[in-house]
Fold this protein.
Amino acid sequence: GNSVTQMEGPVTLSEEAFLTINCTYTATGYPSLFWYVQYPGEGLQLLLKATKADDKGSNKGFEATYRKETTSFHLEKGSVQVSDSAVYFCALTRSGGSYIPTFGRGTSLIVHP
Amino acid sequence: DTAVSQTPKYLVTQMGNDKSIKCEQNLGHDTMYWYKQDSKKFLKIMFSYNNKELIINETVPNRFSPKSPDKAHLNLHINSLELGDSAVYFCASSHGQGSEQYFGPGTRLTVT
């Protein structure tokens, strides 16, 4: 079946540091890949997405590139802010004939001033 | 204007009771979902409806029964609540299966 593996957190950074959150997946066919962000006490929000190999999704300074050869979709940001503190989820869907969404376990990011 | 709304936001109840959570979306989407998020933030899909038809039913106890009266609404009824049902329940919607999802604010269910 499909699966998504994220690095365990929490990831703790100082403001303006570089962020990488690793995400690898197992799926059949050509899934669509997503990063969602969940701020405390809120629902998940779409951060960015990529629907085919070599696509780069970007939003609010965050980027991730769909790498089919390494089955990865790592999230990066050049300079994090305190307001980026949240839980980040990598997800896939539309894999083969299945549309069941599969989420990673989430990575908590804590940014200190 | 809230895109995906859920009521109630908090629900505290005793074991054995029956409760419902309501979800509405005003995005014109045709697919809706219910998720359960545990205390460690693990998100598990429970159900999905497409055009009022159940398309995903992921090994959920039959005490949980979803109902979709129309494309904009997906409710979740839970019978005989158990301690292990305590979690945050999220509703979500999407335009078609497999597209990005829009999540509601969640309903925190506490069973005592």
